[in-house]
Amino acid sequence: MIFKYDIDLFRKKLRIRSLTIVILFFIFVIYNSIQIPSDERIRFFLIFTPVLAVFFLFLFKNYKKQLDLLSGGRVEVEGGMLKQYDSNGNCATLRVRDIEKIFIDKYRGYDRVIFETKEKIHPLINISDKDKLVKLIESQTKVKSEVDLVDNRLFNLKSLIYLSPGILVFILSYIQQIRISYPIFTPEFAGLAFNLNLIIYLLYLPDKESYSLNNFTLKRRLVFISLVIFFFQIYYQLDKAGIFR
User: Fold this and answer.
1) What is the distance between the alpha carbons of residues 45 and 238, in angstroms, rounded to a whole number?
2) Nearest-5° angle of CA 6, CA 103, CA 78?
3) How far apart are CA 13 and CA 15, in angstroms?
4) DSSP symbol at 66
5) CA atoms of 57 and 116, how far apart (whole Å)
6) Quick one: which of 207, 168, 163, 214 has its CA closest to 190?
7) 34 closest CA partner among 160, 169, 190
8) If DSSP codes are grouped into helix, strand and coil, which group holds residue 129?
9) Sheet order of strands, 91-95 included
10) Cβ burial, residue 19 (10 Å; 0-12/13-18/19+)
11) Which range has the top average pLDDT, 14-23, 96-105, 177-186, 211-220?
12) Which member of 64, 95, 151, 190 has the greatest number of CB atoms within 10 A?
């Protein structure tokens, strides 16, 4: 029996996610550059542009790679074997009788099925007819599946709560009376506070195991870019205070 990937859903989600990331980062970079005096902006872009270029290169290559892998891939169950083919015809096999646990969960907004044996863990993401596949494997192994529907998307409605300290500082920095009473609430300080809040949010955000060879996840890329901006913000504040003069 052959099972295909839900390519249309995957392409739609991947485009939305990639476009959202690009827009958010351009807004973030533009905002931070505005807070820097004009004579410092060239140095800011000289430092940040190569990093941003590498990030977008990874994003594009990852986008293309995932579409290529799924568009030509499929999963087959026959002769007591579960076979997963990629677009190049490579096949990963798993003996159905060796499966000891079956997990169903959400990963990055997609349905995922995880088959666990004594030797390895085999994940299948975004299968078009997931329920039919699970029932087939359950009938052959007599193993009941376990369900975990906790989603691990990086940003959702709860993100506003966790990022509220940085958002609050940002709002306060543009209230004239607050800025007069508390001079620390400057746009530069707001950008630094929000970026630090974002880094802490990303670092402590629970992340499910991907069970893939590529562990350089989107979360780690975002942390890396945010840290680069954060260190530049610190450098600028120290330089402004005359530490490097």
Assistant:
1) 18
2) 65
3) 6
4) H
5) 34
6) 168
7) 190
8) coil
9) 2-3, 74-78, 81-85, 91-95
10) exposed
11) 96-105
12) 190
